[in-house]
């Protein structure tokens, strides 16, 4: 009997050891993942990560880093977990995908006074300058579409400020993040308009391809567990209310996950 208890104990501590080897990275994309006024991680996806950490026994702190650096680390280093990261066909083989957290639309935003018209991706090539964030999936996606009128910076707030100052013709972002930025900066939303939706992509938690399969499966099983025990739906329901009350952002729940 004691032998089996010891073996179970060894397995338990082995799992915790694997979980704590993982470095957990995020990027500043409110309201899914961001640093609040106390400089603490907050957001819908942050709550999901904290639920997973509890399941696997991880005590690792979440690190916020610029998107380009985060992408470089998950592409080149073992034991890197990144959230939230859009899952697209050209990224499919680059990472191990733990599970989805939400779905978001990629919108082209301009100043309402600009009067730009865009009917398809080809029309984006006619805009003088499109502002993006370095390392962001939308930058990667548009580069793959052979656009050459792109200019990237480090943060979404910086990119939005360039639009307000007329330094770029348009930016590509999602409604929820832009709404929160406008609320924080006290910008009148009537100044900005979406002129085109270029894509709708599922957003995932992923680990680097160099991470061991055993470590990946530990986190993947934890994700399946919070789906089955109702914790994922509980987090989504809580944030659906919070998004509307705190940020005036509408969302819907489908398959236990938010779309916003």
In short:
The protein has 260 residues and is an alpha/beta fold. The protein contains eight helices and twelve strands.
Secondary structure blueprint with pairings:
Layout: H1 2-21, E1 23-26, E2 34-35, E3 41-42, H2 44-56, E4 62-64, H3 67-76, E5 80-86, E6 95-111, E7 130-133, H4 137-144, E8 150-153, H5 156-164, E9 170-173, H6 175-185, E10 192-208, H7 213-228, H8 231-247, E11 252-254, E12 257-259
Parallel strand pairs: 1-4, 1-5, 6-12, 7-8, 7-9
Antiparallel strand pairs: 2-3, 5-10, 6-9, 6-10, 11-12
Number of strands: 12
Structural domain tally: 2
Spatial separation of the terminal alpha carbons = 52 Å
- Count of runs of 4 or more consecutive helical residues: 8
CATH class of the largest domain: Alpha Beta
Radius of gyration: 20 Å
* Strand residues, percent: 25-35%
Series of secondary-structure elements, N-terminal to C-terminal: HEEEHEHEEEHEHEHEHHEE
* Biggest β-sheet strands, sense, barrel: 10 strands, mixed
Structural classification: alpha/beta
Basic shape? globular
Q: In the CATH hierarchy, what is the superfamily of the largest domain?
A: Periplasmic binding protein-like II
**What average pLDDT do the residues reach?**
92
Q: What is the CATH topology descriptor of the largest domain?
A: D-Maltodextrin-Binding Protein, domain 2
In the CATH hierarchy, what is the architecture of the largest domain at level 2? Answer: 3-Layer(aba) Sandwich
């Amino acid at each position: 009997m004691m032998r089996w208890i010891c073996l179970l104990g060894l397995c338990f501590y082995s799992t915790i050891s694997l979980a704590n080897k993982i470095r957990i990275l995020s990027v500043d994309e409110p309201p899914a993942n961001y640093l609040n006024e106390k400089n603490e991680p907050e957001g819908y996806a942050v709550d999901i990560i904290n639920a997973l950490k509890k399941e696997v026994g991880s005590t690792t702190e979440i690190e916020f880093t610029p998107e380009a650096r985060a992408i470089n680390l998950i592409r080149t280093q073992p034991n890197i977990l990144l959230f939230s990261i859009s899952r697209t066909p050209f990224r499919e083989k680059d990472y191990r995908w733990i599970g989805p957290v939400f779905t978001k639309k990629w919108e082209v935003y301009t100043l309402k006074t600009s009067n730009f018209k865009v009917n398809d991706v080809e029309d984006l090539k006619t805009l003088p300058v499109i502002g993006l964030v370095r390392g962001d999936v939308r930058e990667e996606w548009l580069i793959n579409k052979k656009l050459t009128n792109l200019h990237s910076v480090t943060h979404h707030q910086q990119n939005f400020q360039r639009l307000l100052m007329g330094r770029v013709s348009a930016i590509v972002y999602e409604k929820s993040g832009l709404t929160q930025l406008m609320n924080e900066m006290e910008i009148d939303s009537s100044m900005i308009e979406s002129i085109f939706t270029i894509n709708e992509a599922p957003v995932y938690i992923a680990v680097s391809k160099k991470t061991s399969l055993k470590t990946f499966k530990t986190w993947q099983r934890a994700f399946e567990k919070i789906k089955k025990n109702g914790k994922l739906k509980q987090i989504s329901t809580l944030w659906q209310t919070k998004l509307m009350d705190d940020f005036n952002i509408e969302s819907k729940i489908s398959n236990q996950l938010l779309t916003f």
